[in-house]
Amino acid sequence: MVQSLNLLKESPSQTAGPYVHIGCTPNFSGIDIYGGDLGTTMKTGPVQGTEITLRGAVFDGTGTPLRDAMVEIWQADANGIYPGNDPRGAADPHFTGWGRSPGDMETGEFTFQTVKPGQVPWRNGQLQAPHITFWIVARGINLGLQTRMYFADEVEANAADPILSRIEHQNRVPTLLAQPDGTGVYRFDIRLQGDAETIFFDI
Amino acid sequence: MTQNGYFARDTQWHPPALTPGYKTSVARSPTRAKLSFPTSLSEETGPVFGHNILGPLDNDLIHNFAAADQSAIGPRIVVYGRVLDETGRPVPGALVEVWQANAGGRYRHKKESYLASLDPNFGGCGRVITDENGCYEFRTIQPGPYPWPNGPNDWRPAHIHFSVFGQGFAQRLITQMYFEGDPMIWLCPIVGTIDDPRAVESLVAALDMTRTIPMDARAYKFDIVLRGRRQTFFENRAEGL
Q1: Which of A5, A7, A10 should we substitute to test contact with B (largest number of B Cβ atoms within 10 Å)?
Q2: Phi (first) and psi of residue B25, to 5 degrees
Q3: In a domain, A32, yes or no
Q4: pLDDT band at B232, cuts 50/70/90?
Q5: Contact B17/A203, CB-based, under 8 Å?
Q6: Domain-wise residue ranges, chain B
Q7: Catalytic residue status for B51
Q8: Are B99 and A23 in contact (CB < 8 Å)?
Q9: Does residue A201 fall inside a structural domain?
Q10: What is the pTM for the complete model shown?
Q11: What pLDDT, on a 0 to 100 scale, did the predictor assign at position A123?
């Protein structure tokens, strides 16, 4: 026998189920409480940087958009600082960095009004390409799925990015790229299965 | 520059993505291997929620949707516990959001089709933020079991859904709490997505008769464990030394 490490085990995940919106976006579900839903506003005043809109949907293996998912995003401000507890300093005071969307009840489309994030250092100090962390939960998803959204118009930064450049199957990298429409709107669709299955992260 | 990151998740402990006994997972489970990387600032930071967002009834599901002088119907319980990480350290300031069916097993949701009645005084959601010791507590009614469209005769055990934020976005977790002694736990295809019975047992709250409110409510204890953060004696040394 040896000494015990005395570590606890993480609580195992269980699906968010079909009613996650009751708990996380109750006002969206018609339950008038809390004075509003958390995560609906990422900008609490005039923000620094370029304001953008993110749109997309989550598709299952049959190509059907999920209409009971919840998508959360977490990102740095325009200067590459995370709001709240970034050890490098204070972020834009009018930017929360965190958004939560229940998706449209009919189309499943999520929308975030946010800013384009600045570059954030990787573990070795090298700058990563601008990116937004996504977390997707829904009925039928047993453990919340994490991925990242990068910007298709950041060609040079993406090519130098320490994660994107090390992906073995480079033909799958486009699944992580949001496409600009030229008016400040970026489209990022997430596919759970199929030829264009999004790269999900174990991170 | 970087913190030391979070422990890797134990994929044998969590349910796999594809669990055919839970039919909805079949078309919603990614099929390709996930991309593994150590955490960086992008996951080691996370949103911070202040206690100032909370209203006085946010953690009282018996009253937070009820009309004045009314209360939700059902067995009154207190649910309490701590949010810890895998090293056993408490996680203060963690936002815990909960949702559940009413005592008859019915959710307040437009897509809900179970014939059990709505309780006009029960909304089914609550939230709380852990204190400096990682402790949380809320008051509710014990939810009922209910049938759900999966197999021809599948029932969910009584359960409360939990959404938990840690200090880093890498710790983000949604899970469910079950009740000690419920024989329905072991019949449920969603519980059955977890392979290891010890992992299932870690989601079963214990009846605690020392925390009851006399002549009012019973108590159940439910601790939640989030991913551990690495800590090392050498953490202040520069990279490469």
Answers
A1: A10
A2: -70, -20
A3: no
A4: low
A5: no
A6: 23-28+45-226
A7: no
A8: yes
A9: no
A10: 0.96
A11: 86
Contacts of A35 in chain B (CB under 8 A): 55
pLDDT at residue number B241: 35
**CATH number of the domain within which A71 lies:** 2.60.130.10
What pairs with residue B163 in β-bridges?
Answer: B97, B174
- The pLDDT value recorded for residue B239 is 44
Burial class (CB in 10 A: 0-12, 13-18, 19+), B211: middle
Nearest chain A residue (CA) to B12: A12
Which range of residues forms the domain containing residue A145? Answer: 38-191
Residues of B in contact with A139 (CB under 8 A): 24, 28
Domain count, chain A: 1
Nearest CB to B48 within list A61, A85, A200: A85
B163: which chain A residues are within 8 Å (Cβ-Cβ)?
16, 20, 23-24
Domain assignment of residue A99, yes or no = yes
Give me the residue from B27, B45, B239 closest to A86, CB to CB.
B45
Token pair of A101 as six digits: 């969307």
What distance in Å separates the CA atoms of residue B210 and residue B197, rounded to the nearest whole number? 27
Read off the pLDDT of residues B66-81 as tens digits, 9 standing for 90 and up: 999 999 999 999 999 9
Contact B137, B161 (CB under 8 A): no
CB A148 within 8 A of CB A163: yes
Q: Which of A17, A11, A50 is nearest to B157 (CA)?
A: A17
Residue in chain A closest to B57 (alpha carbons) equals A34
Kindly report the backbone phi and psi dihedral angles of residue B169, in degrees, each rounded to the nearest multiple of 5, phi listed first.
Answer: -65, -20
Give the pLDDT band of residue B62 (cuts 50, 70, 90).
very high
B34: chain A residues, CB-CB within 8 Å: 199-202
Question: ipTM score here?
Answer: 0.97
The verdict on whether B178 is a catalytic residue reads: no
Closest Cβ opposite residue A140 in set B25, B161, B226: B25
**Domain assignment of residue A22, yes or no:** no
Q: Do A148 and B42 touch (CB under 8 A)?
A: yes
Tokens of residue B67, six digits: 């009309």
CA distance A29 to chain B (A): 7
Q: Give the tens place of pLDDT for each residue, B7-20.
A: 999 999 999 999 99
* Nearest C-alpha neighbor of B163 from the set B126, B204, B123: B126
Q: Decide which of 3.90.1150.10, 3.40.50.720, 2.60.130.10, 2.60.120.1440 is the CATH code for B23-28+45-226.
A: 2.60.130.10
